[in-house]
Structure formats: structure tokens, C-alpha cells
Amino acid sequence: MVTGLVTETLRTPPDSRAPARSSAAGGVAIVTGMGDLRVLRWRKYGKDRLYVNDEAGLRIGWVDLLTGDATIEQPAQIDAFRAAVAAHHAEAATEVADSVDTAAPPLPAVPSPRPSAEPAWVDLASNRPGQGVRELADAELAAMKERSRVGTFIARTFDMKTDERAWRMGAGGEETVGGRLEKLVKHGWHVLHAVPVGDRGADIDHVVIGPGGVFTVNTKSHPDGRVWVGRNSVRVNGHAVPYLRNSRFEAQRAERLLSAAVGFPVPVRPALVFLTGTLIPNVTIKTAPDDVVILDRTDIPGAFKRSSRKLAAEQVARIYDQARRSTTWTTQSAVTSVSADQSSNCVCRVRVHGGVHVAVDVQGDRDGGVTQTFLNDLWVDAGL
């Protein structure tokens, strides 16, 4: 039983990390032994941690290798925890030293290739529906089994509410909606799934691009749940949830990024899809929101096919060409818009870092010189 949590900072030498080996969790792990304790290094989703468990799978604590912060879940074993972490670092340092000593002699230097004008990007068109959430579910399942296989069996058998269950159900919902959205492809639409946005692990469930416009689609799975939708609120089983607000922010963020990438305004409309797991979806729409499309399983793909034409084929192709590039959704600095008037004054909107944007007013003379600049506005993307 966890009697309390203790946090402290352990200084981890950066050169003490051994080369990583793939683990069954789908992440990267190194397992070492220290008496009756086991040390598991887990790397994925931008995290790098050491988990310390006893032989029965009880977690003693863990260390964040990126910050050096440690969380001890069993304070009575804090000395053994520190000794196990120190032994792991010593063994890791030895492996690194051995790999350096036996390394092959360096190859002759060759001229560096000329850098490409376009940064390398990953094609998001190959992403599967629910891919990111499914990976989280698999990683959590592996961690549960590491802690206790019996406990994991009981939790799965009785469908207990755990993080793994929530991610697994979310992934199943995205896979269901993604499969139905794919039917739009033969009608001139493009569909992207699990689109990563920014650098904090967030993603958009689905981005739909076609003659009827651009949509960010958010899937919400509530098996046997009762969903009520009003103009400015959503309730699930009587409890208010921030789905409308989050969907609006998600669409606004996508609109800014896509508009900056293609060079012309790209309106993006948010859509919420509710899955209740019942033959007749248990979704009541009291008053539909003006700016968010509310759907259930039976509305897809028909709702998109019936939408009025808003984009020409050339616009659809250009937006999709940029949307499928991972670099479109990253947080690199970029000028997002520039407007000017006849007096040589202009407003530059610039994404300066992450989701942080500023608008700068620049006043100039008619000869092109800058006479004054000042901050006009500043805003931050939702979710940061």
C-alpha cells in the first residue's frame, strides 16, 4: 500500500545513459537488477524515465531523467530506491565507456551535403485512425503488467475504469469513425488521422478536407452514456464537459497553421462525433451550436457529402498537400499574415515560439523606412 509520496531531485549525469534497447511496451527500456529491486528505463512520447519495482511488481518510485526529479511511492524503501538508481547509472556508464572503447576508427571526413531548402517532413497520410491513443493504451497495459499481472487480469476481466481502458476505448472510437470517414475518399475528399500538433503530444483525431471545406473531427466515446447538447454546453450523464470549447480551440489552431502553410485563408470548422455504443445513438440535441457540427455514428459520411461546395478542386489539392506534411503542424516560428495600408503602416502577425503569437504594428514612411514599431496583440494557442 502506498503510504505517501516523497519527491526529491536526483542529479543524473547526462553521459550515464546506456544505449537503449526496444521493450515489449513499444517504448525503449533497459532493465537492471539491484538485490530484490528491478530498474526499468522507459522512453517514449518525449519522456525518459526509470521505474523501480520490487520482485512482486510493486512500484517503489520513479525518476524523470530529463529533469532529475524523483517520486518515491514507498518512503520506507527510499534508501534501497536510491541505491538501485545509483547502481543503474553506474552500469549504464560502463556500457557507454565500453561502446566507446570498442568503436571502429572514424571514417575520413567528407564534404557535408548542401542543406535542402525544404525541411524534412513525415507524411501523415500513412497514420492510422486512433494510432496515438492506441500506442498510449499499449504502453499503459505493459506498465500495468509490470506492476502486477494479476491486478491487470482482474482490471481487464471486470472492465474496471483505468487509464488503459480509457485510452483503449478512445482508440476504438477513433478507429470506428476513421473507417467511416474513409468512405469519403472516393467522393473527392481527403482524410488524415491522428495528426500530431505542436510539441506536447497533442493530436487531432481526424482532419477532413474536401469540396465541402475543412473540418477537424473529434471523437468522443461514451458507452451506454446519455449525451445532451445545447448551444454552448454539452453534458454526459448529467455532467458538463468542455467538448465545445476544446473543439473550437482545435479548429482555430488548425485554421491558423493551414492558412500560414498554403498562403491563403483556410476556414476550418470543428465537428464532434458522439459514440454511445447503442443501436440508436443516445444523443439529444436541444439547440445545435452555430459553429460546431454535432454528429453520431449514423451521420458519417453522409453529413460531409451533403455539405455545400466551398472549395475548388485546386484548393482542396493544395490544402491537402500541406496538411499531410508533419512540418505544417509543428511550432516553428512563421509570419502568419501581413496587412498594409496606403500610409505605409502594416500589421505583421508572427508565430514566435510554440503556440505563442504576436501582432506587431510597423509604421513607416513612403520611402520604405521604418519609423516606429510597437506590440499590438499577443495570444497563445489553446492547450499550451
For the structure shown, list the relevant keywords.
384 residues, alpha+beta, six-stranded antiparallel beta sheet, five-stranded mixed beta sheet, globular, disordered C terminus
Range of strand content: 25-35%
| Spatial order of strands in the largest sheet | 1-8-7-6-5-4
Task: Label the overall shape.
Answer: globular
State the total count of DSSP E strands: 21
Total of helices: 7
Distance between the termini: 35 Å
Query: What's the order of the H and E elements?
Result: EEEEEEEEHHHHEEEEEEHEEEHHEEEE
Largest sheet composition: 6 strands, antiparallel
Low-confidence stretches: 11-34, 99-105, 107-116, 333-344, 351-356, 378-384
Number of domains: 3
Helix content: 25-40%
Protein structure class: alpha+beta
The whole-angstrom Rg is 26 Å
Summarize the structure.
With 384 residues, this protein is of the alpha+beta class. The protein contains 7 helices and 21 strands.
Task: Outline the structure in words.
The chain is α+β, with helices and mostly antiparallel strands. The protein has three domains: 95 residues, no CATH class; 206 residues, no CATH class; 47 residues. The protein has a six-stranded antiparallel sheet. Strand 12 and strand 13 form a beta hairpin. Helix 2 crosses helix 3. The protein is globular, with a radius of gyration of 26 Å. The C terminus is likely disordered.
